[in-house]
């Protein structure tokens, strides 16, 4: 069973390009449809938990499903499984990359790639923005995060904690007995 | 002894990064940039190159980038420690939730924290994106004076075309963006 968990998550790690959200359909196919490790409800629950806890969604869901199937050892097997392909592939690339890096042709291409990455990062921010509640506090906090970091006033960690504290205070002041937590 | 301390530092740094990453891979870029550049482990340029490679290879972004930086610092053993560091916070938290705290996502403190933290993270990612553009497109070191900005038609051309390309479809794959901008960079900077 440990081996099935490991191997399944190894495959999930190996075949998902482009980050955590690309993994969700694969996790559903294996975890719910093929092996019935978790129910449809639990699957949705995992996605919610993964979104509300720190860390990569792949690790969160591997740990959760592994734990459900075989306790703590199961979660170790699944988590190592999902991480291992990336570790191996990246070590191989890193070893090669050092040699290619000095090549001027590669440098020209990477000058372009760096601009492409800036666009990717901006688009990620836009995508996350669209999912936020459109509330004046959200806009205010976006501004706070943007300005504090742009001028390096203090560390990202403190910025996140300030945002979290404001959110908790707002929640306690306004939302009573409502647990779905939408700002309104 | 020195290596042991360095490994602990790698582990601890990436533990911190893993602990404060809410909302997927891109949310970790601001913190990685801050930690790794302030420690002098990587430059802005190599970091951005890593992001491009991490986006074009399979697996979770967080693992890719942690492995990369760990390998650059202390080869395979370094990669193992950074990867372990970035995984451990999620692992510990999820095991605790799975064992005792089933209604975690409904807890009012958790909900409140996330409602406040998410917009801040969006602002922070915007800020990093703008910073990357200032660094790469206008060749500035910091946000300083307008007169320090260098306008180069080649970089502006790439920026505008890649941005338009990324808007053609709702979710265009990052690999397409990386490849297209690489080809454009090669043609504009290398051949022209």
TrEMBL record, chain A:
Keywords: Cell membrane, Membrane, Transmembrane, Transmembrane helix. It comes from the Bacteria. InterPro entries: CHR_Transporter, Chromate_transpt. Its main location: membrane. It is a multi-pass membrane protein. The keyword Cytoplasm does not apply. It is found in: Cell membrane. The chain crosses the membrane at residues 6-27, 76-96, 138-170. GO terms for cellular component: plasma membrane. GO terms for molecular function: chromate transmembrane transporter activity. Pfam families: Chromate_transp (PF02417). Belongs to the chromate ion transporter (CHR) (TC 2.A.51) family. This is Chromate transporter. The lineage of its organism: Bacteria, Bacillati, Mycoplasmatota, Mollicutes, Candidatus Izemoplasmatales.
From TrEMBL, chain B:
This is Chromate transporter. One of its GO terms (molecular function) is chromate transmembrane transporter activity. It is found in: Cell membrane. Coiled coil: none annotated. Belongs to the chromate ion transporter (CHR) (TC 2.A.51) family. The chain crosses the membrane at residues 7-29, 74-98, 119-139, 145-165, 172-191. It comes from the Bacteria. It is a multi-pass membrane protein. GO terms for cellular component: plasma membrane. PANTHER family: CHROMATE TRANSPORT PROTEIN-RELATED, CHROMATE TRANSPORTER. Keywords: Cell membrane, Membrane, Transmembrane, Transmembrane helix. It comes from Hujiaoplasma nucleasis.
